[in-house]
Amino acid sequence: MKDTRSPLNVIAQHAPHLNTEGVKAPPEDKEYTIDELARASESTTRNIRAYQERGILPPPTLKGRKGYYSNAHYSRLRLIADLLDRGYTLSTVGDLLNALEQGIDLRNFMGIESALTSPWTDEEPVVIAVAELMTMFDNKISPEAIGKAMALDLVQLENDGSSVRVRSMRTLKAGAELVATGIPFEDLLDIIRMLRGNVERVAGELVKLVSEHVLSPYEEDSMPPKEDLPKLAELIWRLRPLAEMAVHAELARAMENAANHFLGDKLEKMIEQLDPPK
Hints:
By secondary structure, the protein is mainly α. It has 2 domains: 7-104, Orthogonal Bundle (Multidrug-efflux Transporter Regulator, Chain: A, Domain 2); 126-274, no CATH class. It has 11 helices and 7 strands. The protein has helices spanning 7-14, 34-40, 45-54, 71-85, 90-101, 106-117, 130-136, 143-151, 169-180, 185-213, 229-274; strands at residues 18-19, 22-23, 61-63, 66-68, 126-129, 155-157, 163-166. The strands form 3 sheets. The protein has a 3-stranded antiparallel beta sheet. Helix 1 packs antiparallel against helix 4 (71-85) and helix 6 (106-117) runs parallel beside helix 11 (229-274). The longest helix has 46 residues, at 229-274.
């Protein structure tokens, strides 16, 4: 299973000596040769030498012609491995470690990373029985429709085969209410597919604007100045409600126009039936 911890939690586990004042090495109560360090950290001597060449792993202490590594090297090596396993590049890992060693306040990193990685919804996935899912829709959904819902990641079948993981119960309940009015479930899925495509395109363009006009002063391969990190975190947090308000307002406008266009004539005819001509 993919590690979903934040890099800061990884740091806290493997390098608790890192704090807001800088880096303090752990007690050097054990020495390793490069082969011993590779075995202990589940790495390779080739990786260790490569990390040293890139400057993200300090060189060993020389005793005569032989180099010895400490617990600080072990902690750093495990930290690098965990961050790489989570998809971070060596360049990013190096920038993060260098920033910490320069004494940048970890709270600034916590703020910006929390803003980036925190869920953008208060909903959590819910596991329900397949039988309960069918009951919600009054048994009006076919296996093919469930397959489409899975392709859209609205639901995912659990390993036991008798239950599903629902990403958003709000969406599912809204769908059930609409199906109860007579709208086919598969038609609703087509609407969700179209909606997702449009929303993802808008979200991408909005984030692109932030990247081009707000983050452009910073070089791609370097970390922003530490005094700018809190401002960047605040900006990301502000994006959340602003994006929601914009989408909600535009959806309301579009629904109003669509309702007037498609339902206006029918409503007018219904009103005429209330007062038939004499």
